[in-house]
Automatic annotation (TrEMBL):
Residues 256-396 form the Flavodoxin-like domain. Keywords: Hydrolase. Counteracts the endogenous Pycsar antiviral defense system. Phosphodiesterase that enables metal-dependent hydrolysis of host cyclic nucleotide Pycsar defense signals such as cCMP and cUMP. PANTHER family: ANAEROBIC NITRIC OXIDE REDUCTASE FLAVORUBREDOXIN. GO terms for molecular function: electron transfer activity; FMN binding; hydrolase activity; metal ion binding; oxidoreductase activity, acting on NAD(P)H. The lineage of its organism: Bacteria, Bacillati, Bacillota, Bacilli, Bacillales. This is MBL fold metallo-hydrolase. It comes from the Bacteria. InterPro entries: Flavodoxin/NO_synth (IPR008254), Flavoprotein-like_sf (IPR029039), Metallo-B-lactamas (IPR001279), ODP_dom (IPR045761), RibonucZ/Hydroxyglut_hydro (IPR036866), Rubredoxin-O_OxRdtase (IPR016440). Pfam families: Flavodoxin_1, ODP. CDD domains: flavodiiron_proteins_MBL-fold. SMART domains: Lactamase_B (SM00849).
């Protein structure tokens, strides 16, 4: 049975959630599922903003059919040509053969790469700033390449000033009836998953996001409709502020994330000692992760949030323990930068972990190493306590003298 919600006069959310999917892109754990949003505008002409993933095709098609009430679908705007939003294009073409598919040149290139159909007669190619009248409403298109794919564009509805923002401003996690952020406990339920989504899916493209934010600053926006997660209609400066921080690689908070690999608990022991001593000095909200236990996307999300990172790893096969190697390579690939980093290494007969961690992290931009790397041989010994204490002092001094960026607050309801 259809399940839809009106988000503005004659603009209806026709998406759905998949609470069963284990991993997004078969990679990122989804403990709370994922939502796929699609929005249908009813005007003199009808226009659908993106489709959904194949997992919820049946629900989506029923939703669209119900809202159209026998009318034809005139336009399908493809803001993002990734299959989690495009699985139903061919089915819509079968149902509405005169459907005009709105996209840019790259959109149609990717469409024909992913799918076997080719319908150039249905393609409606748009460029930056082009407008499409639906009757009383007008859609304007903004190309936003690499947020996070090259074909991505945003669609701006000029009457109610609604921005359809593709993956931007979206999050992991399914919807549970409440479609607007202000109806949810956003910071309790969605903020962590919004940051994890940003860091891991979009994080590599900070400069491109900065460019888009400058473009959006010229627009009056009343509502942001992403393809995943809840819709923003209040306090838009909050999420725009978060995106500004994240895309400029500024930490949200002065604090410490410790990530370690440990085979027999000895490296873990050192990390526990460091965390405990930092806590005794007054550092709060410390995060510590075993890379073999926690998926890298969560660690990377916290690395995006906090200023100081401590990595600890044994040498393994004359190299770095695989889990740590994978985490650091992923962080480097995502372009994380402007962090303060300290290192702990462990070896029994051959020493490689500190060297390799230094090389990978040293190649990342604007990284400052804090303190001397602490290297233990198999297990921590009493005589190395002064060295460990010095590292704690150095990290604490660095945290104490750093200044946090100004934080956007949900408590303020700033108009755009
Ligand atoms: Fe939600 Fe980039 O696809």
């Amino acid at each position: 049975m259809y399940c839809v919600q009106e988000i503005a006069p004659a603009i209806v959310w026709v998406g759905g959630s998949d609470k069963r999917l284990e991993r997004f892109e078969n990679m990122f754990p989804l403990p709370k599922g994922i939502a796929y949003n699609s929005y249908l505008i009813l005007d003199e002409q009808t226009a659908l903003m993106d489709t959904v993933d194949s997992a919820i095709t049946a629900q989506f098609l029923e939703n669209v059919e119900h809202v159209l009430q026998g009318r034809a679908l005139d336009y399908l705007v493809v803001n993002h040509m990734e299959p989690d939003h495009c699985a139903n294009i061919e089915e819509l073409l079968k149902r509405y053969p005169d459907l005009k598919i709105v996209g840019n040149k790259k959109t149609f290139q990717f469409m024909e790469q992913f799918y076997t159909f080719s319908k150039p007669e249905n393609y409606y190619i748009v460029n930056e700033g082009d407008e499409l009248s639906l009757g009383t409403r007008t859609l304007r298109f903004y190309l936003t390449p690499f947020v996070h794919w090259p074909e991505v564009m945003f669609t701006y509805e000029t009457t109610d000033k609604i921005l359809f923002s593709a993956d931007a401003f979206g999050c992991f996690g399914s919807l549970s009836g409440n479609i607007f952020c202000d109806q949810t406990d956003f910071e309790g339920v969605f903020l962590e998953e919004t940051r994890r989504y940003y860091a891991n899916i979009v994080g590599k493209y900070g400069p491109q996001v900065q460019k888009v934010l400058s473009k959006l600053a010229q627009l009056e926006i009343n509502m942001i409709c992403p393809l995943h997660g809840p819709v923003w209609r209040e306090n838009l400066s909050y999420i725009l502020g978060k995106y500004n921080l994240w895309s400029s690689y500024q930490p949200e908070k002065q604090g410490v994330v410790l990530a370690y690999a440990s085979m027999y608990g000895n490296t873990e022991n050192v990390m526990n000692m460091l965390a405990s001593k930092l806590s005794s000095k007054g550092v709060q909200d410390i995060r510590m992760y075993d890379v073999s236990k926690t998926h890298s996307s969560y660690i990377i999300s916290d690395a995006w949030k906090f200023s100081h990172l401590i990595f600890g790893s044994p040498t393994y096969n004359m190299s770095l323990y695989h889990g740590m190697q994978a985490l650091l390579h992923e962080m480097a690939a995502l372009n994380l930068q402007s962090r303060k980093v300290s290192l702990v290494g462990n070896y029994t007969w051959a020493n490689a972990s500190i060297k390799e961690m230094t090389e990978i992290i040293g190649d990342m931009r604007k990284i400052e190493f804090i303190g001397e790397p602490l290297e233990i041989k198999s297990a921590m010994k009493q005589e190395q306590i002064p060295q460990l204490d010095q590292l704690v002092e150095d990290i604490y001094a660095s945290i104490s003298t750093s200044v946090s960026a100004a934080q956007p607050s949900l408590a303020k309801h700033n108009a755009m």
